[in-house]
């Protein structure tokens, strides 16, 4: 479990550094080579505007079996995920071994573990807590839909945000970061 914490901290540091680096990028201005001399003088052509930082870092739109999640101002990736057909706002966390739901989010989608089900020890931003292992019938982000996803449900108050972790992400063909976005491919 200590490795999970170390990986999570390393991931957060990488995301923060990437966000800072992205904020320091400047548009690249390229000028065309001078035109060849011609016998007839022509008026100077207007220079094309330099691309903006937004144009350089804006990911393409999500498509069939591909989903782009732009980084937020903290360098984190959050998305609306359909779990059991209900929308939940989740933090996409490649350092989280499990997909993990806040107790309140689990209740909102109709998942109610019994008190004796909370047998898994987890380490959260709030400290150590217990969670219940569950299997979610359907989890969907954009057009990417997976079935029978293993997940954890934290005790009430144990988690600040639900996590889309590796029990979901590892079933995809590709997870990468490019152009300021996390790209998920089925």
- Element-level helix/strand string: HHEEEEHEEEEHEE
In the CATH scheme, the class would be Mainly Beta
CATH-wise, what's the superfamily?
A: Acid Proteases
- The name of the CATH architecture is Beta Barrel
Number of strands: 10
Taken from the alpha-carbon principal axes, the silhouette is globular
Instruction: Quote the beta fraction.
Output: 35-45%
How far do the termini sit from each other? 28 Å
Structurally, how many domains make up the residues?
1
* Average pLDDT rating: 77
CA-atom Rg in angstroms: 22 Å
**How much helix is in the residues?**
10-25%
CATH topology: Cathepsin D, subunit A, domain 1
Number of helices: 4
The protein's oligomeric status is single chain
Low-confidence parts? 1-43, 50-59
Q: Describe the largest sheet.
A: 7 strands, mixed
Task: Explain what the structure shows.
The protein has 186 residues and is an alpha+beta fold. It has a single domain, classed as Cathepsin D, subunit A, domain 1 (Beta Barrel), CATH 2.40.70. The protein has helices at residues 2-24, 53-57, 103-108, 166-169, and strands spanning 66-70, 78-83, 86-92, 99-101, 118-124, 127-141, 144-154, 162-164, 174-178, 181-185. The strands form two sheets. Strands 2, 3, 4, 5, 6, 7 and 8 form a seven-stranded mixed beta sheet that branches. The protein has a three-stranded antiparallel beta sheet with strand order 1-10-9, with no helix packed on it. β5 (118-124) and β6 form a beta hairpin. The chain starts with a helix and ends with a strand. Mean pLDDT is 77; it is low at 1-43 and 50-59.
């Amino acid at each position: 479990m200590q490795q999970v914490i170390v990986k999570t901290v390393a991931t957060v540091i990488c995301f923060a550094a990437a966000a800072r680096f992205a904020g320091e990028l400047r548009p690249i201005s390229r000028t065309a080579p001078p035109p060849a001399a011609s016998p007839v003088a022509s008026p100077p052509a207007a220079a094309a505007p330099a691309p903006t930082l937004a144009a350089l870092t804006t990911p393409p739109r999500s498509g069939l079996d591909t989903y782009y999640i732009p980084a937020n101002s903290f360098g984190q990736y959050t998305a609306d995920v359909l779990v059991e057909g209900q929308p939940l706002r989740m933090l996409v966390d490649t350092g989280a071994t499990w997909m993990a739901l806040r107790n309140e989010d689990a209740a909102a989608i109709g998942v109610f573990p019994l008190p004796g089900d909370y047998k898994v020890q987890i380490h959260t931003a709030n400290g150590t807590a217990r969670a219940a292992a569950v299997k979610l019938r359907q989890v969907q982000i954009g057009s990417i839909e997976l079935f029978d996803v293993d997940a954890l449900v934290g005790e009430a108050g144990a988690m600040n945000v639900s996590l889309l972790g590796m029990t979901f992400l590892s079933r995809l063909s590709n997870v990468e970061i490019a152009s300021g976005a996390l790209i998920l491919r089925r």
